[in-house]
Amino acid sequence: MRGWLKATIGLVVLSGLLVGADRIAVGVAEDKVAEQLVKSGRMSQRPDVSIGDVPFLTDLLSKEVDDLRISADGLTVGDGTHQVALHSFKARLSGVTVSNSLTSAKVAKGSGSGLISYADLAQLLPPASQMVPAAGRLPVSANTRLSLSYGGPGKIKAALGPLAVGEGSVHSEGNTVTADGFQLTGVAAMVAGVTNQKVDPVSFTLDRLPAGLKLSGVTPQEEGLQLSFQGDGVTLIG
Fold first, then answer.
1. Is the pTM of this model over 0.90?
2. What φ, ψ does residue 82 adopt, rounded to 5°?
3. What backbone phi and psi angles, to 5 degrees, belong to 210?
4. The domain containing residue 14 runs over which residues?
5. Which helix (H) or strand (E) holds 4?
6. Are 75 and 210 in contact (CB under 8 A)?
7. Model confidence pLDDT, tens digit, residues 207-233
8. Strand ranges (DSSP E) for 34-162?
9. Number of structural domains the chain divides into
């Protein structure tokens, strides 16, 4: 009886040590991945990294992680000229193959999301003079940019300075985001001396998206434009 009890206690202690070692290994790996993501240029700041695999040591031996999650707030993205903040970025990656030193990693499948505020979004849009032929007759500077706001499900509102331009839509193709469907009506049309003057579509292309993912869609939200990301067979690190 005592022998059985000693064996049981020994197994419990051993299990505890193994679990502790497993969790320590996870913590070390998470820190290493976060560090390498910044060094490799895949993230503009150090993210929070969470590895959900349990146990982790067996996955480390096989050099493949099934559940890797990344999150960060205030990352920067841009069009090569202007940089804006990407808020509430979250990504879930699966089938992540890693090297022994965690200095390289490839992702079989990944998805994520983030948000750009409407105020920041305006920094990526061209000035009024490039969008509205009648802009010179409007009481706004030629450098005034189209400002956007939430217009309801799937819609955004636009304005040039104090003049409302109406509602339009926003969509994406590849990493390019386009806002269109706006036209000068009401006060804006009267001031410009035109009727139903269309505003040319405005677009921008994002480069160096976080975690090597690509833009897969955009959705207007009250607080800003939500971006969705996807990636298959992408390089995460290295």
1. no
2. -110, 145
3. -65, 145
4. 1-238
5. helix 2-39
6. yes
7. 888 988 999 999 999 999 999 999 999
8. 48-51, 64-65, 68-72, 75-78, 83-98, 105-116, 146-150, 156-160
9. 1
